[in-house]
Specification:
Blueprint lengths: L4 H7 L39 H5 L5
Length: 60
Amino acid sequence: MSRSKKWRLEWSFFLGENGRRRYNKICKGCVHPCKQSFRAVLIACPHYQSARSKKCGDRG
C-alpha cells in the first residue's frame, strides 16, 4: 500500500529511516494521544513527570 505525498509531508517528522512512524522513547509506552517524534529533544508533556523533577521540584 503506497502512502500519498500529503501523508508523507504530514508525518515526515515522525518517520524513521525505514519509513515507519517512530515516537520519543518516553512517549512510546504512553497511553495518551499527545505523542512526540523521536527527533524532538525537549519534551513538554502534561502527563509525564520524571523522578528527578519530583526530587528537585523546589530548585526552579
